[in-house]
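Minutes, project check-in
Item: structure for the 322-residue chain
Input as provided by the requester:
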Amino acid sequence: MTLALVLACAEDTLLLGAHQVLELPTEGVSDIADPHVVLNEGVYHLFATNDKSTQGLWTSEDLVAWTNEGAVWQPEPASWADQGEVWAPSVHPGQKDGEEGWYLVYTSGLRIGLAWSDSLAGPYQEVLDHPLVGGGYGGVGDGQDVSEDFLDPLNFAEFSIDAFVFEHEGERILYCTRYSPLSQLIAIPLTGWTETGEPTVVSEPESGGWDFPVNEGPWLLARDGLIHMSFSGNRAESADYAVGAAWASSPWGPFERDPDNPVLESKAEIWGPGHHALVEAPDGRTLIFYHSKVSAQEGFERRIRYAFVEWEGQRMRVVPAL
């Protein structure tokens, strides 16, 4: 590295921190993953999977010092969402009954729920008394478990996880994963926030490919006349977990995959990077927040990192660590 680059890096604290584990106060939580980040009024709001029974929030003004804001959502006792296995928060601005606020879409019990708050920092309250997607809603499943074993593969047709809401040219679309029996990324039209239309398949894992057997954790954005979709593939507990990219002229696809996928994969001591969020920093650069495993071993002990994305035409490139 040249002296000029060293000096430039020294003036850029964001660059110095790229790919480093964020120092999030976790209060004993062994796994923190699936970041969704909103930059609002100069503050980064990082929502993430934490104890798998609530949804947590951390805030920072500089990506260095973080405050644990605690649980912003927890299931109502004995409700459909009170089953544990809570993860993958995704937060979006939206009105409810004419009031400006924020919607939280989340996974609980392998179904997708919907909550709302008049504050980005919550607390979020349920909007529905049933899932938004899964268990017979949103075109996923018929609401009839076929086995008493919750994780029996025969039940997977009822399941949906990892929601993201994308608004484009007057359309509101929810992207998520369903199983049939392998995973598919689907796009579901939303009327308002609670009425769902028929799903369209936008991505499936390629047999024998880097992303087999799972596609999940989608993120959508519009750029230079194209719709960019990035997503995670392979198994989240594995060091083979990675992020891929694709693009299309329509949010409904068909999506063309980047021939250089995955665009973010295990390297050095960053194992199984995935389930990411993309944020435009105040200086116009694109940040990617993602989780990675603490070791190459199978398991779900993970931490959050961030890095930079550069765009080469329609291609998304994650800048490597210095």
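Outcome recorded: The radius of gyration is 19 Å.
No further action items on this chain.
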